Amino acid sequence: MNTPRIDLSPLRSQFPALQETDANGRPYVYFDGPGGTQVPQRVMDAMADYFVRANANHGGHFITSRRNDDTIDQTRTAMADFFKAPSAAEIVFGANMTSLTFSFSRAIGRMLQPGDEIIVTHLDHDGNIAPWVALKEKGIIIKWADFRREDCRLDLDHLASLLNAKTKLVAVGYASNAVGTINPIAEIAEMVHAAGAWLWVDAVHYAPHGPIDVQHTGCDFMVCSAYKFFGPHVGALWGRLDLLEQLSAYKVRPSKTTPPQKFETGTLNHEGLAGVSGAIDYLAEVGRHYGNPLPSIDVDARNEYSGRRRELKQAMDAIMAYERPLFVNLLTAIQKIPGTRIYGITDPMEFDHRCPTLAFTREGFAPSQIAEHLGNQGIFVWHGNYYALAVTERLGVEDSGGMVRVGLAHYNTEEEIDRLIAALNNM
Ligand SMILES: Cc1ncc(COP(=O)(O)O)c(C=O)c1O
Predict the structure, then answer these.
(1) Distance, CA 100 to ligand 1 centroid (Å)?
(2) If you classify domain 9-40+310-425 with CATH, what class do you get?
(3) Which of 381, 411, 409, 419 is nearest to 15 (CA)?
């Protein structure tokens, strides 16, 4: 399959890291996006500009503090657009997804009684498991939903069988950072709500690959991390306002008592927030230049896709359309390498249910050996479990070193895939 003829070079040139070369002048190949993507220049500029013009704490009666207040407000609005949230008051910033999830599991735990149940899944990153399992110390019962070994899709029948009147929360990933599966969040939300529970969604892996719409998916909380979508190391959470209001945050006394600030412990990473705005501006620009006009069916009566929301949707649709055939080519080429085993969905008809993230093992080679061989040639991939320990354990590969993970982002190219395949054939 051919990648659509989108000229990515104007985009690649915005990422200084993509211009880096090894000692032989060969450009580095970044297939490590699921562990953190590269950032465009404007993200760095926004962060540097913060330090020059706005480096002060918030809420002061002087110009640098006011500028910082503006940065925080603007970034909250930008993240609300990214999540397609009803309001910016529903956006909570934190250090990263894991810290936000621990902080919310503690706050949610305050409302639960011993014997209440929480469901986690074997398909998740531990950042969406350990914070919930920690509530066992309060007498909360943790149940585990399984996935199908053959294609790494969540077993929805199994999930349904675990739901009951005692279930208070279900924690699922939007997409698996190990095997790429995209879960049907809207369908899961219906099941979870029918049982009277809340749905917590980890969108960290999905965020750089497709449009997000918390209202359409119908979940109650969603959390992601800007360093996975071309920004700096900042975590961002969306939560339903009534729930954010109900929850009792762990906070210091002088800080605000209303959401979202009541959940933002200590001083935020202000320079990071400036960078998050830069990343969202970048994506909006991708939408303006590369996006197809949205079909009129997407432009609903409330005009939810106006302005930047429309640009972000167009950007993420364009990114999906670019990554899909690139991934097909990667998969087809890797499948031809003798002794490789691919984990996850491999049927192209089912690719609506996966991200362009490929996990594989190869007979006769440990995953770390493959990653090191590639790394020595300037091709960056991850090996091991990438903290998706429940996945590697379930697949029976944890004790043999996990899997090699090749993660495509929209800045990757066919030529880079060719280099990867040549290097793998040359082991
Ligand atoms: C799917 C998924 N969830 C959660 C995390 C943890 O994110 P953070 O580093 O922001 O805590 C990651 C990081 O790799 C991830 O891929």
Answers:
(1) 11
(2) alpha beta
(3) 411
